[in-house]
Structures are given as structure tokens and as C-alpha cells.
Amino acid sequence: MNSALSLPFLVICLVLVQQCDSVGFAPELYCGLENCYDVIEINREEFDKQKLSKAYRALARKHHPDRVKNKEEKILAEERFRVIATAYETLKDEEAKTTYDYYLDHPDQRFYNYYQYYRLRVAPKVDVRLVIVGTILVISLFQYLSAKHKFSEAIEYATGVGKFRNMAIKDGVDRGLLEMDRNGKLKKNKGDNDAIIKQIITENLDVTGGYKKESVYDTLAWHTIISPLTIFRYIKWAVLWYWRFAIKKEELDDEAKMYLIRKYLGVSQSEFDQRFGTDIDDLFEHECWIKANCEKWKAEKDAAEQEKMAQSGRYKRYKRYMKNAGTISFVDEE
């Protein structure tokens, strides 16, 4: 009785085992109901990319549809060739292979496996490095064009300022580009006097701050290129600073004092030159390389400036311009 029941039971178990082997395989994913490793005839545990290419070429030659003449057999060969090609494309790409291995190891996570499969198929394959380079170039181009536009605004402003215009006219007369009549007025010539004056101002104008002349050396692209050198210089400087002033206990020199002053003021070199360039002697007199002294000096400076701004709206606009735009002057201006 038990022997008679055991045979059907064993058959049922074998069927269930066979079904369990294919759990998670979907006809529309990867190699369908077949294992891509089996299709390409490579053991998963002994996977090697060189073996993969060799196995694919051998199978492609063997199952190529052009080798078959019969129409029905040709259809079967085309289908087999497609499965082989799919297996090769899946296993040769590192990301696709990782996703497929997860698909094999976690057949119960059907929705996630569908998502990963279609994500790889639909999402465009773009090299991240190209995206980063492209982004840096776009930002750099914007920086350059923006700086060019701001410098043009500074030139237009300077052209309308009497002091700069008169200096440009004098320089133009000295160079023979402009002529004056007996009454001290500009003579009309073949060229455009205003254009000549503007060109002279452009050549001689020294603009600092946010409206200075455009340069590739101020773009993100250039700073990215030289970043290794910048990092190396900073590390070298930091090590030297620690060696001189922390270990050897050397006395601070003027350059070190200036660094600490800028640090405690919270400004860069260019901003320091614009806002505090005329206060260097005062800063040294008050020993502002000491943090407490610097904070006290800055508080007194800010209080004095606030009082001036309260008394003069024009002075307030001037300080705002100095902070954002810097200075405008002729190169040879005393």
C-alpha cells in the first residue's frame, strides 16, 4: 500500500522541483525562461570576459540564420541567435550582469527585477565623466560671458565719467589718434571719436572686483584643471606653517601676520585689497593678527562706516559698489 502511494508522490515532487527551478524567470526578461549563462555555455562560478567573447563568437557562427536555408528552420535559428545575442549583451556589461545576477539570486523580488531590467533598457547610457566635463564647460562659459558683460558695463560707465573721458582724449591726442581745434574741441575725423575714446579707455582702464575684465583663468574649468597643483601648494603651505610656527615657534613675519588678519576679517585677498587696502598700517598698528584685537578693530570700523552711511546716502551707494564691483582707475593714474 505504501509502495503504491510512494510512486505518484515521487512524481509530484519531481514536477515541483522542476517548477521551482524556473521560479522568477519571465519570458519577457533577459533570456526568457533560460539562464543566460547556460545559453552562452559558461559556468557562472567560472565567468571570464575573455571566455565570454570566445563562446559568443562560436555560438553566433553556429546558429547564424544565414547558415539555414529552410524557412521554418531559419525562423528558429533567428530566435536562437537573438537569445544568444541577448545573453552576450547581458553578461558583457558590468551593470547589466550585476542586475542579472541579482535577478537569479532573488527570483521572489519580481517587481524589483522588472524595474531594474527596464531601467537599464530605457535609461540612456551616458558616461558620467562626459556629463561632469560638459557641466563644468557650460558653467565656465556662463562665467566668462557674464564677466565679459559686466566689464562692458564698467567701460560704458567709465566712458561717461568726465575724468576718464578727459584722460582718454589727452592720451588720444598724444598718440595722434585725435585732434583738437583752436577752441580746444575735438575735430571730426574719418574715424568715430567716441569709438576711439572708448577703445583708449578699454586699453588703459584698471577694473578690480566683480567688474574686472573677463579671463579664462577665473573660470571653473581652469580651476578644475589646476586643482591638483592648488591642493599640493596648500598642503605644502600648511605643513610649512605648522613646522615654522607650531614646532619651531618662530616669530610671525609680515606675510604670516597678513594671512591671519585676512583670516580674522573673513575676506579673500582680492576683497581685502578692495576694502582694507588703505588700512594696512592701521591694522598693523593695532596688532590685528591677534584675533581679539582684530575683532575689536573691525567692530570700531563697522560702527564708523554705519555712522557715515546714515549721514550720506551717496556714501552708502559707494560702499555697496566697492564691495561688489571693486575699483575703476586708469593704469597710469596717480
TrEMBL record:
Q: Looking at the record's lineage, which domain of life comes first? A: Eukaryota
Q: Which residues form a coiled coil?
A: none
Sorted keywords for this record are: Chaperone, Membrane, Signal, Transmembrane, Transmembrane helix
One Pfam family cited in the UniProt record for this chain: DnaJ
Q: Kindly report the protein's main subcellular placement as a broad class.
A: membrane
Subcellular location per UniProt equals: Membrane
**SUPFAM superfamilies under this entry?**
Chaperone J-domain
InterPro entries for this protein: DnaJ_domain, DnaJ_domain_CS, DNAJC25-like, J_dom_sf
**Which protein, by its recorded name, is this?**
J domain-containing protein
Offer a single GO CC term for the protein: membrane
Species per Swiss-Prot/TrEMBL record:
Caenorhabditis briggsae
